[in-house]
């Protein structure tokens, strides 16, 4: 089936099809069109939006049946194959031989890619457990009053991860400032980061502390160390007026500025080139999901910057350039940027 015909036929089922990239249309023509036509015969419309309980159960059934058919021993291996490099080739072969795309989407009137995403969300053992209920928030406050900041103990009582309960408590315990950062707040943040890093270095390698002691200038900044995870709930407490996520975002902007010596990477010609490089590199990864992207490696596409900076720039790019981006999957967004936006940016450059 040629591209124009595929687009025309899909338009009957997906009203926003004109905003979908050519490569995504080709995939949908192969994976979805026949199914959509079958559902039409049964009087069933193609759906978008929140998955129903019935659809979730059907996905669960489809995954379990596929595991039983192929002998793959877990849903995680099936849906997050890259986590198991030693089994990767065998799993890919089994998925191809037994028509994974068709099997996983059986009985569900939705685009294949959305079903795949939903399955991954359902079966990822590392996934969060959803929003906290009001009852859980009250429990969290009570447990913190009883056990202090013993997040390991509290996480066991609440059946959530240590990080989740610590971060949620920091979010609900007090009001925070949402205005621009003052010089005093910024300095508090810098001091807090310096303090936790000093302690970390002292524990890991006492001899490396000498550069921290030598001067109060930026000698203490070591790129490799600064890219490591920091205890944000502790830093939040030291800053006092900001929520942990604000502290993290502000620190990333400070870090970016220092690493790039204050250059405005996303201005003028540099900005255009950075966007072009980012789109090309993302397209080359052939990633189906954001979790498959090595953002640290990708940061070299823009410059010597933290991964959070690159992720923020990608977010702005998709929001400002991709119509109906919320309805698109990660790979559809990348395809659209590559096919529609990239030529515009190159011409502008």
TrEMBL record:
Any GO MF annotation of the entry: chromatin binding
SMART domains: SANT
Cellular component annotations (GO), alphabetically ordered: nucleolus
Protein name listed in UniProt: TTF1 factor
Record organism: Oriolus oriolus (Eurasian golden oriole)
InterPro entries: Homeodomain-like_sf, Myb_dom, SANT/Myb, TTF1-like
One GO BP annotation of this record: termination of RNA polymerase I transcription
Residues in HTH myb-type domain copies: 124-161
CDD domains: SANT
Signal peptide positions on this chain: none
Domain Myb-like: 124-172, 173-255
Domain of life: Eukaryota
């Amino acid at each position: 089936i040629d591209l124009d015909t595929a687009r025309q036929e899909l338009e009957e089922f997906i009203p926003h099809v004109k905003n979908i990239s050519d490569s995504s249309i080709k995939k949908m023509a192969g994976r979805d069109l026949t199914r959509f036509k079958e559902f039409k015969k049964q009087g069933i419309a193609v759906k978008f939006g929140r998955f129903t309980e019935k659809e979730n159960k059907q996905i669960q059934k489809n995954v379990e049946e596929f595991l039983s058919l192929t002998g793959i021993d877990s849903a995680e291996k099936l849906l997050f194959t890259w986590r198991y490099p030693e089994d990767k080739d065998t799993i890919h072969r089994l998925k191809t031989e037994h028509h994974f795309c068709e099997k996983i989407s059986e009985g569900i009137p939705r685009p294949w890619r959305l079903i795949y995403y939903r399955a991954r969300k359902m079966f990822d053992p590392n996934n969060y457990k959803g929003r906290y209920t009001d009852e859980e928030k009250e429990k969290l406050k009570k447990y913190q009053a009883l056990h202090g900041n013993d997040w390991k103990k509290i996480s066991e009582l609440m059946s959530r991860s240590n990080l989740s309960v610590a971060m949620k408590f920091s979010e609900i315990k007090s009001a925070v400032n949402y205005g621009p950062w003052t010089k005093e707040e910024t300095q508090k943040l810098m001091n807090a980061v310096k303090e936790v890093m000093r302690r970390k270095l002292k524990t890991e390698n006492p001899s490396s502390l000498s550069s921290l002691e030598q001067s109060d200038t930026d000698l203490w900044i070591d790129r490799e160390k600064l890219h490591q995870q920091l205890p944000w709930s502790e830093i939040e407490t030291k800053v006092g007026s900001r929520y942990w996520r604000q502290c993290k975002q502000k620190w990333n902007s400070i870090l970016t500025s220092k690493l790039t010596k204050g250059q405005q990477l996303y201005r003028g010609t540099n900005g255009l080139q950075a966007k072009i490089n980012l789109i090309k590199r993302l397209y080359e990864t052939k990633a189906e999901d954001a979790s498959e992207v090595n953002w640290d490696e990708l940061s070299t596409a823009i410059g010597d910057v933290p991964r959070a900076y690159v992720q923020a720039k990608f977010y702005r790019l998709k929001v400002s350039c991709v119509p109906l981006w919320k309805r698109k999957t990660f790979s559809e967004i990348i395809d659209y940027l590559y096919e529609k936006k990239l030529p515009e940016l190159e011409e502008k450059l």
